[in-house]
C-alpha cells in the first residue's frame, strides 16, 4: 500500500532550514563572481563619467584662462623729460601695455631707499631747497583709477620754466635713482605687482596693505593738511 503525502501537514522546520542554508551557501559561493560581474559591467560607465568630468574641468580651465588672458592688463612704470609735443616736461607715468583695462591700486616711491609720501616730499628730498610750494607742477591720482589699454597715466609732471630750471635739472638727474612699484588688478580681480621699468609683473592674490603709500594729492599738502 502506497502512502500519499498529507498536503495539510506543516512543513518540516529542519528541512526548510537545510534548504535555506543550501541556498545561502550557493549565494555566498557565487557572491564574488556577482560582485566582479557588477564591477565589470559598471566599469565602462565609471570610466566614461570620469572622462567627461575631466574634459569638463579642462574645458572650464581653458575658458577661464582665455577670459583672463583676453582682459589681462600689463602696467609698467616710465619716466620722460619731454611731453607729446616735444616740450621739456619731466613726467613719472604708469602705462598699460596689456589688452584689458587696469585698475590701479597702491603705489610706492622710494628715493635712495626712503619712502616718499607725496610729490612735495619727493621734490624736497631730491631737488629743492625745501620750499617746493613756489614750483608749478601737476599731479594726477594714481590709485583707484582705471587705465585703458594703451593709455598712460602721468601722475607727476614738472614743466621746464625759468622758475623751475634748477629744480628741473636736478629732477632730470635724480629721477633715475627712484624705485617705483605699483599694484594693479584686472576686471576679474586678478592682481599683479610691477616694480621698476624693466621688471615683469608678479601675480599676487590681492594688493598689499603694508606699503609706504605715495599720496599724489599735493593740493591738500599746500593747504596745510597733514
From TrEMBL:
Keywords of the record, alphabetical order, are:
Membrane, Transmembrane, Transmembrane helix
Q: Does the keyword Transmembrane apply?
A: yes
Per the record, the domain of life is Bacteria
Bilayer-crossing regions: 36-57
Record keyword Membrane present? yes
Query: What name is this protein filed under?
Result: Putative membrane protein
What species is this protein from? Sphingopyxis fribergensis
- Taxonomic classification: Bacteria, Pseudomonadati, Pseudomonadota, Alphaproteobacteria, Sphingomonadales
